[in-house]
Each structure stands twice: as structure tokens, then as C-alpha cells.
Amino acid sequence: MRPLIRGFTTENFDTDRIERFSCPTNFGARYSHKLHASRNIEVILGANVTELLTEADGGRVRGLSVRALGGKQFWVEAQQVVLATGGLEIPRLLLASRDRHADGLGNASGLVGRFYMCHIAGTIGDLRLDVGPGDVQAGYEQADDGSYCRRRLALTPAAQEANGIANGLMRLHFPAIPDPSHGSGPLSVLYLAKPFVGHEHGKRLKNRGGEGMWLRHALNVARDPLATSAFMWRWLRYRTLAARKFPSVIVPTRDNRFSIDFHGEQVPNRESRITLGSETDAFGMPRLAIAWRHSPTDIRTAEVALNLFAADLARWGRGRLTYDRASVGHHMLRDGAYGGHHIGTTRMSATPASGVVDTTCRVHGVSNLYIAGASTFPTSSQANPTLTVVAMALRLAETLKKRLAATPHLAGSDQRDAA
Predict the structure, then answer these.
(1) Which of 41, 120, 183, 413 is deepest in the core (most CB within 10 A)?
(2) How many CB atoms lie within 10 A of CB 184?
(3) Which stretches of 236-295 are DSSP H helices?
(4) What is the mean pLDDT of the segment spanning 368-377?
(5) How far apart are CA 299 and CA 340, in angstroms?
(6) Is residue 89 within 8 Å of residue 52, measured between CB atoms?
(7) What residues form DSSP beta bridges with 148?
(8) Are 54 and 81 in contact (CB under 8 A)?
(9) Is the dihedral of CA 313, 317, 321, 325 positive or negative?
(10) Do 321 and 260 touch, CB atoms closer than 8 A?
(11) Residue 272: closest CA among 68, 59, 7, 87
């Protein structure tokens, strides 16, 4: 791959790291025929587990209570049970399962729902690079298998240790979309299209410059028709219609002007937690109450990373990063918790006193209950969690296969071995 910034050297960041995007997968379309053909898998849609019921001593799940919106109710019994419903719904179900445990299943130490982590992320600053137009590769390249990859600046372990900060990375990003001073027709089209953009991305397009901004954005579009048309065509072809979709918005700059997109680790915080609220849903289950909390280290990591990068650019002499140092925390927290990455709410630990699941992902004190997903992570790292989630799920599958193989009457049973 081409270097991110040709000729730039730094001891604080690894410039050779890449992020690689898999092809978005519709699991129903890709795997439904295999599920239908399988003799030992039964998929039940619209079936909502509302409670886990345990034996009298609370040490084993004896059944799962299931309800459908149409009013149907039924009962599932299984030798082994795996919860794989995400970092929010798993603690919700555990906390709501109180037939033998007044505080919820697996919650003897009061840690179910605690240490809720996402990622600290935000866009900030004005980066100017005094290099040729071909010397910066801020966008994506494609590997031989068609997957999209791009480079980023990742804090080195030595820089983290020397400065007492967590992990983090930075990407070269286009100027802030809501600010029409960028003069970009494609960026202004995105701003004007914000009523049609989903909540997670739309909240980043909020008007932060006063009323009447739409007119200035409309003028950008009018002044930049060729680039705007080309951008919309590429979006339609490579994002809307393509099977392997372009991962994100990339708008080339004319003058090597960028902002910095920071994505960092959130350190574990006991007061950041998921609890049950007073309202209930259609099944009578308590809805979630979420108290996402950050730590000073989370913001300091972003502050130090930006400062190190600015200093490295100054020493290099061919680039300059300016930003309001007092507003780093505001920019990192402006849009709240980074959506989709729900981590740590049933953390893994060596002992029940410090977590919810053991090193095999089994809930402490419950012999046949396992959890698959990022809720088991004791720390968040800076990376998207999905690849590690898949690796842990495969590891858990092997654990269950070995356990069932060691119990012949279970492995050869006609009953379902797991739910």
C-alpha cells in the first residue's frame, strides 16, 4: 500500500497499521440454506427469551421462558445455554432473571451491567500538509481479494507507556461537514441530506453554526457541480448497489487540508453501567437504564495523541495541526457513546469477585450458562470488536464440542444439545 503521508516519520505513531473491512454479510441470505439443511440446528424466529430459570440451588439453568408478540409462550430446555444477544440485551436478561437470584443471575458480585465501554471518538482540528497531491493516501485501497483497506496513525506501545495513556489511533478525515467554509459540494450535499440519514450518522451533521447554514451549503453545491455529481455517482455505484460496499464517506481534498478523526480505547469504569429501569416492554420485561460514563484518562489519551502528532509535524516541517486544546473533551464526547460497540457488561475474570464469566466464557457459579460477545471483554482496546467477537465465539464452540464429547449420553442424544 501507498504510505499515508509520504516522507513523514515519527517515533510516537505506527504509520504502517491498516484497517481492513470485510464484505457486509446478510446472514439470512448467506447461511439460511445451511441452517435448513442441518439436522441438529433449529432456528426459531420471533421467539424472545424473557427469563432464565434455574435449579433450586441456582447453579444450573433448567429452562428458558420464551414469548412471541402474538401471545404465544413456550419453554426451552437445553443441556448447555449460550447467550449471544449483544452487550446491552445480555445484561438485561441476566438482571431480569430473578427466580432464584434476587439481584439477577450471575450477579453475586454486583458486576452484571457494570464497566460498560464503547469507544471515545470524535473529529477535530485543521491539518495542512505541504506536500504534493499524490503524497497523501487518506482513502481506501483494495487488496487482491477486493477488501477495502486504509492506513491510520496508531499510538505505539512505547508512547502509551511513556505518557500514561490508553490506546488510540487517528485517521485523516475531510473537514467538518456542518461548516460550509470547506467549500466542498459533496460535503454540503451530505449536510443537506441529513433528514434522510440514520440517527447514528445524522447526529454528526447537526447545525452548529446558526440558522441559514443550508443556504451556504446550497451555494457550495451550485459552485461545485462536477465534483458533486461524481461523488453521488460513486456513492450509488460503490455503496448503494455494490455487494462489497465502500466502507465510509471519502471526499478528496484539493489542498491537502484535513481534520483528524480520533478513535480511542475507553478504560474500564465501574460507574459506567447498565441497569433495569422502571418501564417495561410488550413482554413485561424491564427496559434498560443506561448510565454511560467516561474517565479522565479517556480524554487525556486524545489530548496527548493530538499534541504528539502536532509536535511530530512541527519537527518534520511540512505540516501543521491546529486545534483548540481546551475543546478536545467536547469534541470527543459531543455525540455521546460510539454506537454499536457495546463492551464489558459481563466481563471475563479469573474469580467471581472481579467479573461475570470465567476464561471459558461460562457464567461464574452457573454450570451450563455461557456468553458469547463483546460484553465479556474486560477492556475495550481501540479497535472495532467484531473480529475478536468472532474469534471468541469459535473458541467457545470448540469448548462446548469438547464438553459434549466427554459426556457420551449428551453427545448422542436426540434432544437439542444447546440453545
Answers:
(1) 120
(2) 26
(3) none
(4) 98
(5) 20
(6) no
(7) 21, 142
(8) no
(9) positive
(10) yes
(11) 87
Q: In what helix (H) or strand (E) does residue 409 lie, and over which residues does it extend? A: helix 408-411
Helix, strand, or coil (residue 414): coil
CATH 3.50.50.60 spans which residues of the chain? 44-116+342-411
The residue among 153, 115, 156, 119 whose CA lies nearest residue 299 is: 119
Report the candidate in 37, 300, 46, 8 with the shortest Cα–Cα distance to residue 130: 8
Q: Match 464469566 to its residue by C-alpha cell.
A: 357
> d(Cα 307, Cα 159) in Å, to the nearest integer?
12
Contacts of 105 (CB under 8 A, 6+ apart): 52, 54, 58, 94, 97, 98, 112, 363, 366, 369
Strands (E) located in 145-188: 148-151, 153-155, 168-173
Q: What is the pLDDT of residues 175-189, one digit of tens each?
A: 888 888 888 999 999
- Residue 77's Cα: distance from chain center in Å? 32
**61-91: per-residue pLDDT in tens?**
999 999 999 999 999 999 999 999 999 999 9
Q: What is the per-residue pLDDT for 33?
A: 95
The amino acid at residue 206 is K
Helix 213-223 / helix 185-192 crossing angle, nearest 10 deg: 140
pLDDT (tens digit per residue) in 175-228: 888 888 888 999 999 888 887 777 666 666 665 555 678 899 999 999 999 999
Half-sphere exposure of 156 (CA within 13 A, CB side): 12
Measured from the Cβ of residue 112, the count of other Cβ atoms closer than 10 Å reads 28
- Tell me if 286 sits within 8 A of 73, measured CB to CB: no
Q: Which DSSP letter does residue 372 get?
A: -
pLDDT at 415: 45
Please, where are the H alpha helices in 245-319? 296-316
Half-sphere exposure of 388 (CA within 13 A, CB side): 15
Considering only the top CATH level, what class is 44-116+342-411? alpha beta
Is residue 389 within 8 Å of residue 397, measured between CB atoms?
no
pLDDT surpassing 70 at residue 37 = yes
Query: Helix, strand or coil for residue 63?
Result: strand
* 324/122 Cα distance (integer angstroms): 14
Please state the separation of Cα 413 from the chain's center in Å. Answer: 39
